[in-house]
Amino acid sequence: MKALALIPLFLFVLACGRPQEIRHGSSLGGSGDISGFSAVEGVEYTGLTYQGQEKSCFAQNPNNTMCTQVESESLKFAKSCHEYGNLAIQCDCHDWICVQK
User: Which residue, among 33, 36, 32, 45, has the nearest Cα to 90 in the 3D structure?
Assistant: First the structure.
């Protein structure tokens, strides 16, 4: 009986215990798709915002969040960052930073 009680705990640790690679692009869709780059969940990244300020954040997993598909200044900045060969990290729905490679 005690062993059965440990099964949910084991499954929780198994699901949450490993860093997960996050691939951006699939949630953005349309012609403005930013695909082909990834971030690691649980890793803190430091980069510049579209306003030129340094910021640190943990990459958001787009599979766990519902965001509106608004063409924001920050999203345009992320696309430009990616086009120049850098890593665009999504911190929140409409909040991106650019990490230089």
Answer: 45
